[in-house]
Every structure is written in C-alpha cells, then in structure tokens.
Write a structure and sequence with these properties.
By secondary structure, the chain is an alpha+beta fold. 45% of the residues lie in helices and 12% in strands. The strands form two sheets. Strands 1-2-6-5-4-3 form a six-stranded antiparallel β-sheet. Strands 7-8 form a two-stranded antiparallel sheet. Helix 4 (99-107) packs across helix 14, helix 5 runs antiparallel to helix 11 (221-231) and helix 12 (242-249) packs across helix 14. It starts with 8 loop residues before the first strand and ends with a helix.
Length: 292
DNA sequence: GTCCAGGATCGGA
DNA sequence: TCCGATCATGGA
C-alpha cells in the first residue's frame, strides 16, 4: 500500500496547508530566528530563502504558500519550515516542569524552528552581535542588494561567499555593519577559498561543532549556538542573549519549580530539544518584555 | 545627552 | 581563567 506523505494540496492560488496550532507563520517568522521576512499585509509575509521568493498567508483556512507548486513545496519549503517534525510532541517534553516554561510554551505555540542555509545564518548572526533585530534586517537586506543575485523587482538572493568576498571593506561598511565588516570579509574569503566547510562537522557532537565555529572571526559562544540551532539543524543547544539573561535574572534560584530554566542553560541540562525551549522563552521575553 | 540591541575581541590582572 | 573597555550604528 502506498503511503500518502502529502501535508497539503495544490489550489489555484498556490499550495495549501490545513490549520495547525503548531504552525503559526507570524510567530515563526517574527520570533527572531530569521531576518529576511517582511510582513507585507496583516495576514501575509514575503521573504527569500534558498534563492526563492515566497509570499505566505495565514487565515482561518490555514496557510497558503502563494503560487507554490507541489514540487517546490516538497523539494524545499517543507524542509525549510521543518514540517516533518511533531512540535506537539516536542512541547510535551517540557510541559508541567516549571510555571514560567509552561507560560512560554503556550505563548510561543506555533513557532517552528526553520532549517536555514548555513552560510546565510552564519553571516546574519555575526551581524547580530550587539545589534537589534530591525537593524540586523536592514544590514542583511543591504548586503543582499550589494552582492546578491537579483530575483526580480528589487528582490535579491542572499549573496554567495565569493560575491561577498569580492566586496571591499568600504562597500561592506556602506551597509552600516560598522566594525563587523572585517569579520564578514575574513569569513567570506576563507569560506570561498575552501579553507573550511561545515560538511566536515557532520559526524561531530554539537559541542565539538561549537568549538569549531568559535574559531571563526566574529563567532563567540552565542553566535555559534544560533548558527548551530538555525543553520545546522542542531536542536540541542541553548543560545543565551541579553533577553535570555533578563529572563534568567528573574528566576528564583531557591524555588525548585523554577529549576527548569537554569538546568537548560547549564552544561548538564543539554537535551535533544532544548533549542526549541530557548526559542519560545526568547519570544516570550522579547514580546512581553519580561523584567521581573 | 544616555541607554540599548539575539556579543565578540582584546589586553591586563 | 576572568574581567573591563571598546567596538559602529541608529532608534528609543
């Protein structure tokens, strides 16, 4: 018997996915994991990934990938949106362990961890250092305009390593990236030259890959974890940024019911899906401006 | 004017 | 190993 692995179906307007509480495109695209999606209407986002432009809409009928064929969905977007992972089961791993975690899980329900391109994720998160999300989006956008392949109507793909390597430091600084320009230039030159490649890390544990990433210019502990989580599909890492520090500062370390947060940050707290927990906590902390 | 943003790097203790 | 100063930029 043939197994039907279709997740949705083709309509005149594009590819349709039925309503799913564990796929909210607004939370997914607005939770700080990606920088190339813009909300162009209350229900619609436009973005570029893998050299493809997409408009995606969510309403009572579910999610619509506009103008998307079945093949394009199966070949690319299905994997990009991580649609073969059961996020209900992931959420269940952390329910009932900590009141603050429960709140964040409910608030962030619908977030999916995107499987983004490694090179784009690396550059984007090096630019993210000591920066805010709207400004990071602007930097990435201007870098794409400066060196990315045009896709039409002022839309450009994320630039290939050699295209970035061809930019002068002055051209890089014109995007507004400031002191991060030398980092980006060194990364592009070494990567384009084939000095290193992420395929060499496929057999390594996440902690070992993290050490390799941290040898690269502009990559510290936090950026390395974000690249692992969003660009290498490693879900067993827990990036700690300023928002996470604010959230953690409100934890009463003497309350055993709030140990979950601390355990996930601690070395011994690593588990297969702690990256998802981190993401819903980050989304809650940033959106609701957790202070204490 | 000061503070902050999905921090990293550097020099010195 | 750990700590503080410094690093562009722009919005609040």
């Amino acid at each position: 018997m043939e197994v039907n692995t279709d997740l949705g179906w083709v309509e005149a307007a594009g590819y349709r996915l039925p309503p799913d509480p564990f796929f909210d495109i607004h939370k997914t695209l607005d939770c700080g994991q990606c920088f190339r999606w813009n909300r162009i209407a209350p229900e619609t986002w436009a973005g570029v990934a893998g050299g493809r432009y997409l408009e995606i809409r969510q309403d009572e009928q579910g999610v619509l990938l506009k103008g998307c064929s079945k093949d394009t969905f199966q070949d690319f977007w299905r994997h990009y949106f991580d649609l073969d992972v059961d996020y209900g089961a992931v959420e269940a791993l952390y329910q009932g362990l900590d009141p603050r975690v429960d709140e964040a899980l409910q608030f962030g329900r619908g977030i999916r961890l995107l499987r983004q391109d490694f090179w784009e994720t690396l550059i984007s998160f090096v630019l993210s250092a000591n920066n805010n999300i709207p400004r990071i989006q602007g930097l990435v956008s201007r870098l794409c305009e400066a060196a990315g392949e045009p896709l039409g109507e002022g839309i450009c793909a994320f630039p290939e390593p050699d295209a970035v390597a061809r930019l002068t430091e002055t051209q890089l600084r014109e995007t507004g990236m400031g002191y991060r320009a030398p980092f980006i230039q060194k990364l592009a030159r070494s990567y384009a030259a084939g000095d290193w490649h992420e395929s060499g890390w496929s057999g390594l544990e996440s902690e070992a890959v993290r050490k390799e990433l941290m040898r690269l210019p502009g990559v510290g502990p936090k950026v390395a974890n974000c690249v692992l989580l969003f660009g290498l599909g490693r879900r067993d890492v827990f990036p700690v940024d300023t928002w996470m520090k604010k959230a953690l500062a409100t934890v009463d370390r003497d309350k055993p019911e709030e140990k979950m947060l601390l355990n996930c940050v601690a070395e011994g707290g690593r588990c297969r899906w702690t990256g998802y927990l981190q993401q819903v906590l980050f989304y809650s902390a940033r959106t609701m401006k957790w202070e204490g």
